[in-house]
Specification:
alpha+beta, Alpha-Beta Plaits, 2 domains, 5 helices, about 20% helix
């Protein structure tokens, strides 16, 4: 019996999130069903982070214990043969018995895609948010820098546990123009609050459209701002379908308990 670390990609469109739910199709449920076909007898796999309904991934990480007498490559092929078309295992390898994809993670990186266009575009809109009203591109780019560093992000999400902290350290926050009308937002942090990335994107677009000031956003992160007055308006979230979990990083193998 060995513990395996798995990297997974999925199109989140038809999933009710990553975490297992009764009577609903989830990433965890599909992966566990595939593992059962290979003789897996565990109760639950471990996942690096929860993704909401409609959110995609190219670098989700899971772990499970399995008695597998073949190669890692054989395991990848066997799992992909049993998984549905909107999921795929990218990599599998053996890790230490104490490895936990969530608690051992050093950082997570997300990418959000949006494009500015007045007319509907059904193909692009499957994986990107269509922003119908124009925005100031320079303001959008500069607003991303506000979030770098360690801040209380309570205005931008809720803790992942009832008594969890809302303080997070963001090490990357930047917009890149990839086409004339398309922009990608890359954000990396030690961890994220529930729906934090979608809130960050929505607020930055609002700033770029002149609906809220950059100063108000910065004030919401300031240490002197009272906890009950950290809200940033207008309220809202960027749509889930523009968001992708790209990468989860870990310490060197030798530093994780065996």
């Amino acid at each position: 019996m060995a513990r395996y670390q798995l990297t997974l990609s999925y199109d989140g469109t038809d999933f009710f999130g990553s975490q297992r739910q009764a009577k609903r199709r989830t990433v965890q449920g599909e992966l566990e069903d595939a593992l059962h076909t290979l003789g897996w007898t565990g109760r639950s796999i471990l996942i690096a982070g929860r993704t909401d309904t409609g959110v995609h991934a190219t670098g989700q990480v899971a772990a499970f214990d399995l008695d597998w007498p073949h190669t890692d490559g054989d395991l990848v092929r066997a799992l992909n043969a049993s998984l549905p078309a909107d999921m795929a295992v990218r990599d599998v390898h053996v890790v230490g018995a104490k490895f936990h994809p969530r608690f051992d993670a050093l950082s997570r990186r997300y990418r959000y895609k949006l494009f500015c266009q007045s007319l509907r575009d059904p193909i692009r809109e499957r994986f990107a948010w269509r922003v119908s009203s124009e925005f100031d591109e320079n303001v959008l780019v500069s607003s991303a820098k506000i979030f770098l560093g360690t801040h209380d992000f309570s205005a931008f999400g809720s803790p992942t546990t009832p008594k969890g902290t809302t303080v997070r350290t963001v090490t990357k926050s930047e917009w890149t123009q990839v086409e004339k009308d398309e922009w990608h937002y890359e954000v990396q942090a030690d961890a994220f609050l529930y729906r934090m990335v979608r809130r960050l994107v929505f607020v930055q677009v609002a700033v770029a459209q002149g609906k809220v000031s950059a100063e108000a956003v910065a004030h919401s992160l300031a240490k002197q701002a009272p906890a009950g007055k950290r809200s940033v308006y207008p309220a809202g979230l960027a749509p889930a379908h523009g968001l992708t979990l790209v990468e989860v990083t870990y310490p060197p193998v030798e530093s994780i308990g065996q």
